[in-house]
Amino acid sequence: MTHEVNTSESYILREISRAGGFYGIFGKELIKAVQPCMDRALRCVERSRRIMQELGLDEICRKCDEEEGGSCCGKGIENYYGMSLLLANLMAAVELPKKRYDPGGCFFLVPGGCSLVFRHTICVNYLCRKIYDELGSDSIVKLQEISGHEINAVFELNERILAFLRFRNHGSADL
Q1: Does the residue 1 lie in any domain?
Q2: Which tens digits make up the pLDDT trace of 30-60?
Q3: In principle, which of 83, 130, 135, 157 could form an S-S bond with 139, CB 3.0–4.6 Å?
Q4: Residue 100 covered by a domain
Q5: Which residues pair with 114 in a beta bridge?
Q6: What's the CA gap between 65 and 120, in Å, rounded?
Q7: Which residues contact 80 (CB under 8 A, 6 or more apart)?
C-alpha cells in the first residue's frame, strides 16, 4: 500500500474494487466469522463520534473546512486505505463512493463529512493545532483515550478480516 499522494485515483479505485470482490464472495460468511469483533469496533466508533460531538469537534472542523479551506481530509489521504479496511466498511453497510466529491479532498470526504464508518488510524488520531488550542488538555486527553479504543478495535477487526481471507484463500499473499 502506498502512502504518498497519488494524483490519479487508480489506487483507491482498485482497492475499492478488490474489497467489493471479496465482499461478493465472502460477505455473509465473513460477517458471521468476525461479528463479535465488528460489533465491538462499531461500539468504539460510536463512542468516539459521540465524544467528538460533545466536545464540539464537528463544528470546529466544519467551520475550518468552510471558512479556512481545511486540510486534514485532503486529497491523498485515501491512499492510506487498503482493501481490508474498505471491506470492513462494506460489511458495515457503507456505500463506498465511485468518484471523488471534492477535487481537493479525500476520496471518502462527502458533504456530511467522512463517508466511512471504520477509518484509518491517521484519520482517527490526527488533531490539528486549532483543536488543541480550542479544547484544552483535559478534553484532548479524554478524546484520545476514547479514540484509542476505536483505533485498537478497528485494528483488531482489520487483522481478523485479513486472517479470514488468508485462510479462505489458502494462504495466498495476494491480499
Answers
A1: no
A2: 999 999 999 999 999 999 999 999 999 888 8
A3: 135
A4: yes
A5: 109
A6: 20
A7: 1, 3, 120, 122, 123
Those residues whose C-beta lies under 8 Å from the C-beta of residue 172, and which sit 6 or more positions away, are 166
Q: Is 27 exposed, middle or buried (CB count within 10 Å of its CB: 0-12, 13-18, 19+)?
A: middle
pTM of the complete model:
0.89
33 within a domain of the structure (yes/no): yes
User: Considering the chain, what is the average pLDDT of its residues?
Assistant: 90
User: How many domains is the chain partitioned into structurally?
Assistant: 1
Confirm whether 21 is domain-assigned: yes
Find the domain containing 126 and state its range.
10-165
pLDDT digits (tens, 9 = 90+) for 81-99: 999 999 999 999 999 999 9
Helix axes 57-68, 10-54, angle to 10 degrees: 130
